[in-house]
Amino acid sequence: MSTIILGLLLGLPVAGTLLCAVLHQRRILETVTVSVGGLTFLSALWLVAEVMQGTTISSSEGWLYADGLSAYIIIIISGSALVVALYSTGYLRRQIRDGKVSDRQLWLYYLLLNAFLFTMMVVLLSNNLGFLWIGSEATTLATAFLVAFYERERSIEAAWKYVIICSVGIGFALFGIILTYYSALHVVPGSGNALNWSSLMLVAKDLDPAVLKLAFIFILVGFGTKAGLAPLHTWKPDAYGEAPTPISALMAAGLVNVALYSLMRFYVLVNTAVGGTYAPTLFMVFGLVSMGIALPFILLQKDFKRMLAYSSVEHVGIIVFAIGIGTPLAYFGALLHLLNNALAKMVLFLTAGNVRLAYGSRLMRKVTGAIKVIPVSASFLIVGVFALTGWPPFGVFISEFTIVTAGFDRGYVVPVIFFIAIIAAVFVGFIYYTSRMVFGEPNVPVTGGEAEPLALWVLGLLLAALLLLGVYLPPPLEQVIENAARVLKG
User: Fold this and answer.
1) pLDDT confidence band for 192 (50 / 70 / 90)
2) Which 3 state secondary structure label does DSSP give 194?
3) DSSP readout, 290-331?
């Protein structure tokens, strides 16, 4: 049974990629991609159901592995991919009508979207840390061409910057993995298993702490670069700003969580092997630094998509900071924030796509009076900003409140005060810019109209989910998060 589930999660995106490679008709590309997204999401639900009944599932050869943590993040990733597939149909049809996308670009988009989903699944299902690294590098290659999708000078420059910075970062991660292998070589029975997560955790307390401490520095720099942790985040505003809006949304809700997953895997291993406050302290410091560095760029931003990119830097910092607190409540808050942030980022990036289609610009000074031009999307925009910045009664407020409570309970008063101050300042900046975009009178005549009905329904459902998570946490979801949190506890 486990082999079937793992095969579906990897095989469906591969099948979608191959079908898109040979079938070039628009309707077929759309149908294949949406179907793959939907079936992958259903397979993820099946995986969660199986994991909740036991502890882990794995392939017979031991190469593939899934536990509560990987199953939870696979749900978020596959759900995000399904949303992007549904939204992309109307978005790209409109860009084709406007002459901004060619048939060749459309074909390449759907081909790489399926490939992107496959590479993320490779990371999340790999038991072997070497394959996890290969999958991480493959996500960069799959998305680099999507960042350069519009083939403008800025897009190509952003794609090269993304590839170079992330590849250098992943190179550091590879060195950390090699050091981890070295520390396990004489401890794990059989050198072939010395990179398997399941084998390493069994002997974690016997690994060389000094070597693992050094390895963790390289891992944190490497996968932290991929997640967009400051000061390793400089690729993110350019890549998010230049990529097609649905891809920016999937990178913010999917790629970031894949990189965080890799960091969490090593955090658990090092924390178990080394003990003390070594790994938690590094996480707390990097988390607060990311939040602090993102703040001025959010407050002084001109481009809404770039502002959302810096918000992603901030929220990655929030999650890493929460994990660094190191208590069960903090782990629960961090994992809940993974989901809430993914939902909120999807809402705002996709709504930003609606605004850009209507106004023909993503510069905030050129977007005014949106409530009179695209009233539904404008309403989603302002409500989505309240949700993203942690305003009650939305889910982000609950996860941030949980993190703050855990920090105070642990006695980290000063760091938590800084945490609250940064969040409050970010809220002020987002509300200031968004209110100028939504209200008032349009500066220039606007020829574009409201988005496709399907896109609006998708956005409405995402906002409803954020509202639900702010007032009620369904018991099945709570159990799934608690199961994932148990993995973080080691």
Assistant:
1) low
2) coil
3) HHHHHHHHHHT-SBHHHHHHHHHHHHHHHHHHHHHH-SHHHH
